[in-house]
Amino acid sequence: MKLLTLNFLTCARKTCKSTAAAFPLHPKDAELEQIEIDMNPLFVKNMLPRLEWEAMKTLTQELGLPALPAETPAPEELTTEDGEASQVLKDLHVLLMETSVASGKLVCGNCGHEYAVKEGIANFLLPSHMV
């Protein structure tokens, strides 16, 4: 599960839908893997405005990854003067597109429910008593 995906996930319980603590889900005992893929600068640039930046900063901090800038990078920070991808863009690509959670758990900050992640796939099926 790519780290980018975690920026769009929240707890599946109905009681958690209306609380801010249900987002983002917090990784626990997460094992990360990095899978190299070709960089798509346009995709990363278009995703930046859609990201919840504070949630991404929290996620990187909880996973022990390098800290993100305090603010979402401006579009001009993503390319150099000669039109090449800047180091900021390259770092964001590695973080969002190449870094994945291979196994571990995702924990809701509201109810504490743990969603298992195995082989990069999170199980969001709830037991019947929690639906």
UniProtKB/TrEMBL annotation:
Gene Ontology molecular functions: protein heterodimerization activity
The listed locations are:
Cytoplasm; Nucleus
Q: Which family does it belong to?
A: Belongs to the TRM112 family.
A Pfam family in this protein? Trm112p
Q: Which organism is it from?
A: Extremus antarcticus
Which positions are tagged coiled coil?
none
**Could you tell me the keywords of this UniProt record?**
Cytoplasm, Nucleus
Protein name stated in the entry: Multifunctional methyltransferase subunit trm112
Q: Which GO terms describe its cellular component?
A: cytoplasm; nucleus
GO BP, one example? Answer: tRNA methylation
InterPro entries on file: Trm112, Trm112-like
